[in-house]
Amino acid sequence: MNAKKSLRSLMTATLLVGATLGAQAQMLMNGAGATFPYPIYSKWFDEYAKVDPSVRFNYQSIGSGGGQKQILAETVDFGASDGPMSDENIAKAPGKILHLPTVAGAAVVTYNLPGNPKLKLDGATIADIFLGKIAQWNDPAIKALNPDTKLLARDIVVVHRTDGSGTTYIWTDYLSAISDAWRDKVGKGTSVNWPVGLGGKGNEGVAGQVKHTPGAIGYVELIYAAQSKMPYADVKNKAGNYVTPSIASVTAALATAQIPDDFRFSMVNPAGPDAYPIAGATWLLVYEQQKDPVKGKKLVEFLKWELTEGQKLAAALDYAPLPKSLQERVMERVNQIKY
Prior knowledge:
The protein is an alpha/beta fold. It has two domains: about 30-105 and about 280-335, D-Maltodextrin-Binding Protein, domain 2 (3-Layer(aba) Sandwich), CATH 3.40.190; about 105-280, D-Maltodextrin-Binding Protein, domain 2 (3-Layer(aba) Sandwich), CATH 3.40.190.10. About 40% of the residues lie in helices and about 20% in strands. It is built from 13 helices and twelve strands. Strands 1, 2, 3, 4, 6, 7, 8, 11 and 12 form a nine-stranded mixed sheet that branches. Helix 12 packs antiparallel against helix 13 (about 325-335). The radius of gyration is 23 Å and the shape is elongated. It starts with a helix and ends in a 5-residue tail after the last helix. The model is unreliable at about 1-25 (pLDDT under 50).
């Protein structure tokens, strides 16, 4: 009889342990937002599943505007954005939202021309193309920057984002910094009224439109151009040098950034001879006070991992990791999250 009772107790305990493990295995962390960091976030989520198999991430790459809306509506556990939230949006939040920078990247000028020549462009020319003032590839302004490149009398087809986009924020932040005409007519934001062009959804959509439209020009995060084997231009920086977008040139731009305590900062058109001018950080958006203590604890554990071990994975995907000093500052903020 005692043996039977012991067996029943053992079976019950086993079932309870199994149920507990099952519940842990089904813990789903929901996030949504920026397409700019989607490749590195996907890598992080896959790798973190090996570190803590009890957590699974569901990330919807819907654009930074969507990420901001969903974190405000509390329909996700974290949002993601390449443009910092405005004071107006932050004021709408039911609790304090933290901006936690994760990596930095480059928004590149990509195009579809015969032979995929390597172009050089400056800010004024890029702005005039996207304003519709320069409409032909053999325009004197483009030819002057690329005297050794054969440029045909082909129409320029501008491609831009249609969704609320952090990549658009970085792009329009840069154009507003270097062009008075752009700043006065269009301005900066995750979504703007485009003077000309076709729309694409997400970095993926813009890359696809450019790749399949002869004469097209658009802007995407560096890895989307690299993965699609699309050309991208060297861009003249504030110091007067033409700089190729790369981890090194984005790191040089990040090194010059003035980063306030709330971590909402811009790094476009920076000083420095080696800095790429169209670069930006990307942020995870989380509530300082977590409603679900179990999820909150797991989220904090993940954030600490991505700030340390996760940073080592960034360069392989053409993102610039955060400098050590910034990692430490962000870690202090993560430690303030309550659950």
